[in-house]
Amino acid sequence: MDVACAVLVQWFACAKGISPDPTLLGTTFDLSSAYRQVGLNKHGRDVIYIRVYNPEKGCMMVFQVQVLPFGAIKSVHSFLRLARAIRWLGTVGCSLLWSSFFDDYIVFSPPALARSSELSAIALFKLLGWLFVEDGRKCKPFASTCEALGVIFDLPESCNFTCKVTNTASRIEEACLEIQRVLSSGSISQVETQKLRGRMQFAESQIYGRTGKRCIACLKDFASRKRSRITQRDALFLKLFVSLLTSDEPRETSLEDDTSVVMITDACYERDSRDLICGLGGVLVDSANGLKLFFSCQLTESQCTMLGELQAKKIIFEAETLCALLAYSLGRIFSPNECAFFMLITREQSSA
Amino acid sequence: MKGSSENHAVDVMAQIFAEVETHVKTLCWLARVSSFSNIADAPSRGDCSLLKRLQFRDFSLDATACLENICTSMEAKLGREAGRAKPKELKQSALQIA
Questions:
Q1: Domain residue limits at A284
Q2: What is the ipTM of this complex?
């Protein structure tokens, strides 16, 4: 996914100033029964057998595996090497604008070259002897909307150097239904947790911010079988995740200028100091508009108490985190422009 | 960042941080810088002379107002847990820079 988005940004960057129209269309190619297209050599065949019960003979039967076995750890590595080789050949030899994830290939192309790109990819697969899906639901022509890897690449705005990426409706529905089921039953097993967490992690990658990650963290205890009953707090996080998923706006991949906002923060805490016990400092530099700001302030007694000063030896970790939060909030007020946002914080190793 | 912590106060701060991120649709990149290389070290100790010489504008008043708002919001979220972080919990803080 990241590679596909990087490809799009690179295309937009190359097209800027050269081509008046950076419009792209997209499509996917799916290798048929991918693992089963890779035969094993004699050494491989000698060590891989499967045992299956034969209901007619009423006994177990042993079969020698001839191709990459699905589910074996080493099959993944071997297959990915081949998939990567195909991608490399397509990129370097055929000048295809594409990316791949296991047996799925996402191809982008300007409208005028769509047919040429399609024929090039087909010729490459056929030349190498790979079978791919040539008809049916998975075989779709180049279009301005392309579905792959559980997300939708929305390309109509590519003429304005922008592509939108969002979770597919089916992925959102699957995750939401599973969460609703768990909430209704009031408990979740370890196996169910692992399955649900996988789905949530995949969907979360298309959600802005870290809230989704915080929601997924509520499943930690269930994954390690520490408990199985869903508490009110867990339910709250799971419902929040559903809300995030269903209201999520598409993520934008666009060609931005290379400006950035950098905020650097630090905090100090000296309990026995007469003047300044807990101070916060921050520096903001916005390269887009040349803005250069700084702040220097100190926490009041009650604010220090809230951070746990009465119970802890020192509250420097809390002060540093608070300073980062303060700087981020201020940064968004003073530099609300769309650009990369970096924060550099001084922090003790054992804290946030 | 992991985005959560066993320390009540830090966890609430991480929560507010995540809320701001979601609201402004931005993923902020955070990294550590050592005190020696940190230009914000001096202002955190009340020394702003260098930054003033470098013609940085002072927005400490805005920062103080914003800090009060954040602390009010934190107090509301912490409720009875405010000020209850214990040293033992601090050592177990799960919010670490990866």
A1: 260-345
A2: 0.84
The predicted model scores a pTM of 0.69
- Looking at the structure of chain A, the number of domains it has is 3
Whether A68 is covered by a domain: the verdict is no
Minimum distance, in Å, between the CA of residue B76 and any CA atom of chain A: 11
Closest to A264 (Cβ–Cβ): which among B38, B58, B67?
A: B38
Q: Are the C-beta atoms of A163 and A254 separated by less than 8 Å?
A: yes
Single out the residue in A108, A140, A166 at which a domain terminates: A166
Which runs of E-coded beta strand occur in chain A? 25-30, 49-54, 59-64, 97-101, 104-109, 145-148, 151-154, 162-167, 251-254, 260-269, 278-286, 291-298, 340-345
Domain boundary among A147, A166, A185: A166
Quickly tell me which residue has 């967490």 as its tokens: A197
CA distance B75 to chain A (A): 7
Indicate which of B34, B84, B90 best probes the interface with A, i.e. most A CBs within 10 Å of its own CB: B90
Radius of gyration of chain B, Cα coordinates, nearest whole angstrom: 16
In this structure, are A310 and A330 located in the same domain? Answer: yes
Q: Is A63 on the interface with B (CB under 8 A)?
A: no
What gap in Å lies between CA A328 and CA A318, rounded to an integer? 15
The per-residue pLDDT for range A14-52, each reduced to its tens digit, is 888 787 789 999 999 999 988 999 999 999 999 999 999
